[in-house]
Amino acid sequence: MKKEIKRIILILTALCMTFISLIVYISYFQIFEASAVKNNSYNKRLWINEQAILRGSILDRNGKILAYSEKDGNSFERHYEYGNLYSHLIGYSYRDYGKSGLELHYNNALLNINENTAINEIKNIVMPNVEGNNLGLSIDHNLQSKARALIDGKKGSIVVMNPTTGEIYAMVSYPDFDSANLKDNWKKISEDMDSPLVNRAIQGLYAPGSTFKLITALAALGSGDNEEIYNCLGSEKVEGYIFQDYEGRAHGPIDLKAALVKSCNSYFINKSLEVGRDKISNMAENFLFNQNIPFDLPVRVSQFPHREMASDLELAAASIGQGKVLVTPLNMALVASAIANEGQIMKPILVKEIISKDGKLLKAKRPEVLSQAIDPIKAEEIKDMMVEVVQSGTGVNARIKNIKVAGKTGTAELSSGKNHAWFIGFAPADSPTVSVAVVLEEDKSTGGKSAAPIAREIMLYAIRNIKE
Known about the structure:
2 domains; six-stranded mixed sheet; five-stranded antiparallel sheet
């Protein structure tokens, strides 16, 4: 009898453990995994649900239709009006190839479907939606077209935004692909060694070169010894390694402002060792390095790996944007924007509005401060230096007649012998309405020669044509 009771207890215990394990698994799945599975671009159930819904349109800030759907027999066909121009932002939505860009990350809004809960699933069955919602973007179509034309044929990215609101006016990555003809070109696109599927603006990580000197300069401003004179001899030796200035040019006695204007490597290397790893690292993190940047599309984390910098040599390289420092173009656009905006970093906005098919505003994003990277006094000091960079320094090719421009060039040297050519800046400097980051990947020139003229054209067009 006792053996029988023990056997029953063991069976009941096993059943209870199995039941508890099942509950734990289901709970874990619902909390941590269900959303990822539901929103996976290859989830076939999504496509079954979509067949009965007219997917919402995507429009620019002025109401121009960029993508839309129309009925084709028993299903709906997606149309991308401008092919390559929005391949990385809008992305694509095809049953054979899945989804990307806003088509993926705003899928529920475009279909007007609720999150995956049991109640909402029943509701969708009983009262199915037939039309999705529209997305209103902050993008200016004409500026997007101009940016694409300026970078055509060059690998890299351009990010243009309003520094005081965070609205993205243009975001271009090249090479790109034709969203409208994905089926005919998929094999070629997916096997291309230049990675046209990658949105370099938010997924590309680049050595920032001398644009990072803004971070080092701000750390030096905080240390209180920025007015000390340094005698540049054209190079600086650290732990046996000799860092050269551009073309080995000696700048002579200079202070922080002159060093930034002339982009003197020796000065900033020497200064970084005085200021120290912690202060430069803290300043970088003030500008969202080593942190996730909230955005409508996933952004890779810019890296200032100070804990991995075991030597002065590594810190010296990092202080001029070389070594282990890596950034996204969006992050560098935010650096320029924060300086333009009295030190405040605004949350970047790509999708401004979600609007129902009958024109009802369902959601609108308002300007939101992410952080105060620096105080307004430091922002004004570094802005004045950036103005001089464009007036008489390495950024003269970004000058605009009768408009004061602030900027910083960068030329990140690569082991291949080529460079990443950079320019970041904003205008008008006294009352900024546009900021920009331009990077030309593996370019044969310098930031001042190749990236600055592109930035100039972008800023001039935005000032003349974009009205808030």
